[in-house]
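Q: What does the predicted 3D structure of MerR family DNA-binding transcriptional regulator look like?
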Amino acid sequence: MSSYKDKKVITIGIVSELTGLSERQIRYYEDRKLIFPERTKKGRRKYSFSDVERLMEIANKREEGVQTFEIKKQLQRQDNEKQIREKMLKGQINAHFRIRK
């Protein structure tokens, strides 16, 4: 079950208001593969609260002078670490409750 934070329901205009970033900046970060909105059937972008948090993190790093390719590497590293932690936790839960696949 996914968290409400991961549901892609927010339009780019609202994301822009929440983050203070222009729609152009948000699209640029998508082009740089830093965020991954979903698209509606009509091609409109939809973002999640997790995307908004990530955009704020990106904006803060950019203000500190960090280049987008470095941010991408950092975000990929964080995502990998998160996946590893989730797998480990699942394994611990499965072992504790003796759940077999």
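A (community wiki): The structure tokens above were generated from the sequence. The longest helix spans residues 68-96. The mean pLDDT is 92.
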